[in-house]
């Protein structure tokens, strides 16, 4: 294989030792390699592909204690890799040596390797990147007023660090990777291939580090290909990344051994059951929190699957193994991809046995517990046959629970949800589509945080939220199970033996409001793809208002009001930008909006009314009332209102008959076939509705559990309505 570097002869491996051996009289001279060559060769080992650079950068971010890491990639990583985190940052005085080889903050003596907890320790990664690419670091440490930005080449700074605006943490940008290694660049031409590897890598990190939110997207694309919110449940993380169809077929597994003569370890994770089929095995393995590969363990597990569940012999496996750090040698591979374990055979055997017995029980469970569940005929979905019921519900244990008190025990258990009974139906296609669409996320904008969150008015508003909590509702919110959407604005929730109807619009409005107050002045930004001109949007909103109120149709007046309001909002622009990340430029265009809830973008159809209420409903004089009103206006805008297009699933279908649309013609009117409908609009509406439903289940409810502090008013204003109690229902049935 060609290993010559572009600049040719100086590369060690380019020197042919045996070339023309027969006629060489003297042995070739041994020369000391130029240091830059040594460094580049070493760098090529650490950074083998773009994905290795991403791995090193993400590990650094995790080592820095980050809770949010986002990755942006251009051309499969060859043009750009950018990793931003909110970790502890890098001291400005360390910047001069940051990218020298063997400079690290994580290890000082060799013995430390025995107990090393951080992922890095060699101090080689950043240095290597500067030998094969252009590295720029932007970072800020806590308590600093501004950050620093500096670029590196070949291990050294290209210039003094420049002060710059930065938000908490570090952003590292690697551009033009392998610019000086033409052969390597050539072998890496397939950008899609490398991007897929990066997405796969981030997905793996995101499962194991479910307490960290990850996002990964291509440069210039708003939609992230991986996007997770922080959650304590690994299964939830798997569900977000690999989809419910994978998560549904997983079983939890734990095993440990504490016998020094065999092995000492603990393992926990998830493995797929008999229903899971895939073309290849997915094995996500972490040993002492390091993402590693272990071919022998993978083989051992595959063997068990093919002998126990031949039809499901390509499993999905996530395992996290912990063992005493002195039993692991992390220093056997330059990229730390492999580790060597003490008593590896015995450990693998114990895990193999555990997997085997788990699969045996799942096999028998399946035969005994398979039953037909039929859906309500009213639904559009076809019922899933042979649905496996969670053993915790119908297994032996549950028989001890009086039947009238049987409830879903795990609020995150998918078997408890309506969705668990639906499969291979249009809904699942929607889910996939909307899954992608709804994880469209914001462009992260690094901004300069001010001391603004210390404003007393914000403290007061936060206190008011806390003092106004309804404890009963809080308990329901924290521990409920989402069942499904009952109709356009109501979702069904179960809590213990009670069933509740919950007004999704009210709940989301309140949640967004509270989040605005909590994130005050610390928002990431959603960059609008096109500037949104305020005057035109305000005129639209005014027209809508006039239509509703039957007001007069005075275009001139509307234009005047719109102009005044635009001026007003432009005047308040600095404050709106600084505290709420609502950016209005000098030309009167709305450019940016805040991210209030990760994964959620507001319905842009509501921008006109949002701008109008911002101009009309805010009292700009009193600070506290002003902040409260702006937060409420934002809350209303971001709330999960029903889409503007009527729901095609019900009576709304009338709306899509062409006679009402622009394409209507007299001839069409008699024709009642499919062509009668405006298919394009219909598809748009279906996507919007499916996406909203997905958002409610996967974004609203998980965030509600985490963040919502339900105010007392929600107990009486129809936001939460108890519709049934299992005990009472049973009493009624007993009487019948
Ligand atoms: P290592 O991780 O082996 O120490 P690296 O070359 O990856 O070596 O990083 C060098 C040093 O730079 C780290 O020890 C750490 O102190 C600092 N560093 C790198 N990335 C980050 C980051 N994202 N946040 C904070 N510090 C970082
Ligand atoms: Mg490192």
Structure description:
- The chain is α+β, with helices and mostly antiparallel strands.
- It contains 21 helices and 23 strands.
- Strands 1, 2, 3, 4, 5, 6, 7, 8 and 9 form a 9-stranded mixed sheet that branches. The protein has a 5-stranded mixed sheet with strand order 10-11-14-12-13, with helices on both faces. Strands 17-18-19-23 form a 4-stranded antiparallel sheet.
- The longest helix has 29 residues, at 679-707.
- The chain is globular, with a radius of gyration of 30 Å.
- The termini are far apart.
- The model is unreliable at 1-21, 364-453 and 660-672 (pLDDT under 50).
- Magnesium ion (MG) binds at residues 56, 59-60, 120, 125.
């Amino acid at each position: 294989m060609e290993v010559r570097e572009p600049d040719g002869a100086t590369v060690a491996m380019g020197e042919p030792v045996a070339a023309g051996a027969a006629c060489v009289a003297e042995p070739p001279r041994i020369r000391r390699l130029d240091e830059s060559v040594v460094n580049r060769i070493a760098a090529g080992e650490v950074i083998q592909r773009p994905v290795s650079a991403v791995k090193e950068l993400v590990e650094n971010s995790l080592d820095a204690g980050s809770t949010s890491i986002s990755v942006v990639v251009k051309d499969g990583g060859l043009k750009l890799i950018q990793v931003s985190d909110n970790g502890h940052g890098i001291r400005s005085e360390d910047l001069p040596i940051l990218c020298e080889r063997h400079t690290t903050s994580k290890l000082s003596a060799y013995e430390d390797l025995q107990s090393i907890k951080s992922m890095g320790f060699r101090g080689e990664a950043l240095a290597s990147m500067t030998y094969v690419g252009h590295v720029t670091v932007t970072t800020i440490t806590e308590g600093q007023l501004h950050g620093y930005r500096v670029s590196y080449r070949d291990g050294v700074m290209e210039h003094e660090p420049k002060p710059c605006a930065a938000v908490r943490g570090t952003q590292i940008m690697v551009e033009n990777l392998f610019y000086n290694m033409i052969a390597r660049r050539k072998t890496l031409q397939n950008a899609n291939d490398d991007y897929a590897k990066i997405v796969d890598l981030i997905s793996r990190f995101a499962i194991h580090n479910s307490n960290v939110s990850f996002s990964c997207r291509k440069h210039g694309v708003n939609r992230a290909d991986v996007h997770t919110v922080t959650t304590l449940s690994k299964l939830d993380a798997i569900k977000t990344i690999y989809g419910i169809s994978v998560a549904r077929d997983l079983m939890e597994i734990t095993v440990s051994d504490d016998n020094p003569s065999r092995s000492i370890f603990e393992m926990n994770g998830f493995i797929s059951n008999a229903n899971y089929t895939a073309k290849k095995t997915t094995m996500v393995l972490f040993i002492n929190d390091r993402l590693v590969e272990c071919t022998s363990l993978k083989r051992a597990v595959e063997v068990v699957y093919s002998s126990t569940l031949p039809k499901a012999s390509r499993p999905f496996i996530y395992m996290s193994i912990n063992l005493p750090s002195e039993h692991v040698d992390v220093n056997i591979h330059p990229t730390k991809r492999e580790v060597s374990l003490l008593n590896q055979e015995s450990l693998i055997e114990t895990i193999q046995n555990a997997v085997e017995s788990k699969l045996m029980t799942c096999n028998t469970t399946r035969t005994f517990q398979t039953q037909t569940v039929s859906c309500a005929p009213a639904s559009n979905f076809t019922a899933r046959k042979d649905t496996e019921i969670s053993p915790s519900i119908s297994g032996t244990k549950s028989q001890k629970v009086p039947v009238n008190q049987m409830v879903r025990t795990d609020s995150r258990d998918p078997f408890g949800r309506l969705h668990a009974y639906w499969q291979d139906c249009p809904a699942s296609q929607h889910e996939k589509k909307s899954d992608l669409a709804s994880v469209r996320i914001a462009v992260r904008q690094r901004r300069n945080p001010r001391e603004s969150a210390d404003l007393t008015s914000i403290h007061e508003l936060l206190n008011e939220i806390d003092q106004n909590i309804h404890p009963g509702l809080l308990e329901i919110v924290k521990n409920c199970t989402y069942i499904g959407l009952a109709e356009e604005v109501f979702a069904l929730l179960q809590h213990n033996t009670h069933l509740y109807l919950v007004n999704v619009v009210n709940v989301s409005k309140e949640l967004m409001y509270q989040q605005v107050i909590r994130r005050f002045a610390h928002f990431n930004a959603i960059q609008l793809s096109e500037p949104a001109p305020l005057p035109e949007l305000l005129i639209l909103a005014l027209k809508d208002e006039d239509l509703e109120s039957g007001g007069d149709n005075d275009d001139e007046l509307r234009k005047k009001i719109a102009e005044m309001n635009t001026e007003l909002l432009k005047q308040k622009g600095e404050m709106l930008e600084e505290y709420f990340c609502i950016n209005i430029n000098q030309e009167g265009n709305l450019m940016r909006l805040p991210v209030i809830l990760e994964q959620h973008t507001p319905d842009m159809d509501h921008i006109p009314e949002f701008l109008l209420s911002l101009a009309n409903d805010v009292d700009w004089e009193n600070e506290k009332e002003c902040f409260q009103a702006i937060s409420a206006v934002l809350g209303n805008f971001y709330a999960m209102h029903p889409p503007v297009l009527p729901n095609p699933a019900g009576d709304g279908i009338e709306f899509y008959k062409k006679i009402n649309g622009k394409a209507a013609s007299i001839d069409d009117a008699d024709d009642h076939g499919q062509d009668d409908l405006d298919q394009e609009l219909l598809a748009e509406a279906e996507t919007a509705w499916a996406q909203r439903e997905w958002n409610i289940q996967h974004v609203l409810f998980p965030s509600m559990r985490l963040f919502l502090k339900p105010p007392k008013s929600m107990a009486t204003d129809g936001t939460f309505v108890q519709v049934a109690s299992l005990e009472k229902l049973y009493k009624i049935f007993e009487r019948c």
